[in-house]
Amino acid sequence: MSQLSRQLGYTSTTAEISERLNRLSSLTDHYICVAEIDSVVVGWGHVQGRHSIESAPFAEIGGLVVDEHHRGAGIGKKIMSECEKWARINGFNKIRVRSNGIREDAHQFYIAIEYEEKKWQKVFDKSL
Fold it and tell me: At 6, is the secondary structure helix, strand, or coil?
């Protein structure tokens, strides 16, 4: 999973990914699924419940990646379908995905599977 994350520019180590998976697996409002070919992980998806004061609860894709050598084979669509199924089962009537503004191929993928572009935004971080 860490190798796949690197394809998107995230440099988490295998140990860091493992620690995060252990933490997330104990939370009932998170779901992670993987796609395998010949026992090799070629894609993964993460969806979580989001709750806020200003809007009704919804599910949000925390991450989706398919190995660059397997893109276009329907793996991402299947992972998204599983995430959507989890969201429906858990009572969410909306699912959201955010995508880096430079990932045009990803934008086209989401449009192709019937997601609607809603807005552009900037993200601000502060190290603590």
Answer: helix
Give the tens place of pLDDT for each residue, 19-61.
999 999 999 999 999 999 999 999 999 999 999 999 999 999 9
Q: Chain-centre distance of CA 92, in angstroms?
A: 16
In terms of Cβ atoms closer than 10 Å to its own Cβ (0-12, 13-18, 19+), residue 73 is: middle
Can you give the pLDDT at residue 15?
A: 95
| Long-range interactions of 98-104: CB distance < 8 A, separation 24+ | 98/60, 98/61
Tell me what pLDDT residue 82 has.
98
Pairing of strands 95-97, 58-66: parallel
Backbone angles phi, psi at 103, to 5 degrees: -90, 70
pTM of the model: 0.90
**H-type helices in 1-128, by residue range?**
2-6, 14-25, 75-89, 104-112
Biggest CA pair distance of the chain: 45
